[in-house]
Amino acid sequence: MYDPFAVALLALEAQKVVELRLMKLAWGGAEGCAEAQQMVSEKVSAFVEASGTLMTGGSPDTVVARYRERVAANTKRLTAA
Q: Lower Cβ count inside 10 Å, N or C end of the chain?
């Protein structure tokens, strides 16, 4: 099974990344373009990793934990001055 609390935290944490990315994309320019490309690349990579984890017998909790790590890294990167 999965931990619904961890899933709820992931949803809340991801909202902050969505906000930060939308702000960066709205400013546009080279940074906005680079962020859009990185966002798509990260999503494809995360999907492939999650699929592989589940296909090799990993648990949904493992997938959620890894997504939370990625979200935390993006929050840190996007809030850096």
A: C
